[in-house]
Structures are given as structure tokens and as C-alpha cells.
Amino acid sequence: MIPGTKWCGRGNDASKYTNLGGFGKADACCRKHDTACPYWIPALDKRYGLFNWRISTLMHCSCDER
Fold it and tell me: Which cofactors does it use (predicted)?
């Protein structure tokens, strides 16, 4: 987790959806990225006929463009 955030990094440390860290704007951006992306593949998992060899979640390009 990036210091001062609860949503930026691997997973999240938030106790509920509205819980943000000291860097609220950055945290809100990370939260939206993590929760609003409809297409993603967990680390070392297969979905949509694709295998994600990375050690982190792979998000659809449209989710990372913003």
C-alpha cells in the first residue's frame, strides 16, 4: 500500500468503501480504478481465454487510460 492511502497498491486497507486515506484525491482515483473496471484478470489466473502471467492484476486498457 502506498503510504497515506488505503486503495493505492495491492488490494486495499479500507474498512468500508467510503474510507479514504490522507491523500484523498489519489485514493479516490485508485478506488475508482479498482472497483469500476468491468474486465480484469487476477495474478496468475485465466479469464476471457487469456492467462495473466504477472504477479499483479491485469486491467482492461480502457480502465488504465484515464
Answer: Ca(2+)
